[in-house]
Every structure is written in C-alpha cells, then in structure tokens.
Amino acid sequence: MTKSATPPTLQQQQEELDELGEFLLSDATSNETMMLDTLDGYLTAILLGPSLIKTSEWLPGVWGATAKDEPVFETMEQAQRILSLIMRQMNHIAANLQDAPDQFEPIFDDVVYEGDPQEYLDGEMWAYGFMRGIQLRRSEWQVFFDTPAAVEALRPIYLLGAEEVSDEDEALVATPAQRAELAGQIPASVAWIYRYWLPHRKAVFEQAMPATFQREQPKTGRNDPCPCGSGQKFKKCCGNAPTLH
Prior knowledge:
The protein is mainly alpha-helical. 53% of the residues lie in helices and 5% in strands. The chain contains nine helices and two strands. It has helices at residues 10-25, 36-48, 55-63, 76-99, 124-135, 142-145, 148-161, 167-170, 176-208, and strands at residues 109-113, 116-122. It has a two-stranded antiparallel sheet with strand order 1-2. The longest helix has 33 residues, at 176-208.
C-alpha cells in the first residue's frame, strides 16, 4: 500500500514562500514580474473564477506582458523548482478555499509612512493581482458584474486593485487608514466570491469530466511533457493542478 505524501508543515510552507519570493525579486526576473503578494491575488482569482484556465495561459502573465519578461533560469532544475513552488502555492490556496473559505488569509504586506509611527495593512498589490486574474476571463465574469451584490462584494478589491477608478472612488483610497480598512475586508470578499462561483464551477467540472467517454488521443503519461505547453512533466504541471469545485 502506497502512503500518501505528507502535507508540508507551516514552517516548510513559509520557507517555500520565502524561496519563491526571493526568486521573483531577483535579477533573473524583469521589472514586470509579479511579486509574491501580486501572484497570490492573481492565483486566487484564477482558482475561484467561473472556468478552468490552463497553466500555459496564465503562467506568462506572472512574468510580464511580453516574452522578453520571461525569467532567465540558470538550469532546467531551477526552472522546474520555481514552477513547482508556484503550483504548490496554487494548491495551497485551493485547499484553503475548499476547507475554510471564511478563514482565507491572503498574502499582504505591511507598510509604514515617513512621519507616521503606525503600521498599515497593505493589500494593494494583492488586489491588483486579483484584478489581473479576472481579466484572463473578463467576458465570463460579466454575469458577476451584472449582479449588484457581487459588485459590492468585489468593491474592496476593485478599489485597491483597479488600474483606473473614478474621482469619487479615488477619494475612498486617499489615506493609508482607508486603504488598510479596505484590505481588511478582502478575506470576506474572497469567501463571498468563492461561494458565488461555486455552483458554476461544479457544473463546468462535471461537463469536463463525463462519466464515460471515448479517448481520441493516447493518455498522457505522468513523465511525459505536459500538453498545456509549459515545458514541465505532466505530473509536475496539470497532472498536479488543483481542482476547485
């Protein structure tokens, strides 16, 4: 009988996050590469949104807007390590949302301002990453934006993360205290949005996984290149991708 893999401890998870964060800040990446908090928001939106998105579609957005922003890995092993750390964080987010959405903890930073001794919660870059994740499937999110209660639930994330807001909305994020208060509302927003899309995701998942089907192509082996085009082995990419349904 094969034993299941032992879940990482909180210390191991933190060490992996630190390793990933250091790489994202390193000279191997461009100035357009997402930092850890932005990446966390981006992955969260991808996971709780209306549809499944292939790794090959969302991964380039982590590095930047163009192919020139792709990181320069020293070795193939390093590339696989970094990609596995991203996927592990994605799995961690998915597990947290499934198990306890009301206890979801986004990766936020703390910020201090000159002349002000108080430390403020900073959720702006996380929110920006979340809004970037929405843009991957903006048309599919339209029904969400047509629902007043849904728009209200998204509002803290929108105010902090949208690239452009109205002058009226700009006044709501003018001070550190206002921004910190909005950041504190984001976990509840995430739980609400998760539950909003849950029935839809279940339906999509069931349609994508029929009870019986005729396979037109040979089954992808776990050590074969992943068909999504990421360059990784299937077992380390889509074969290990989280399912949030």
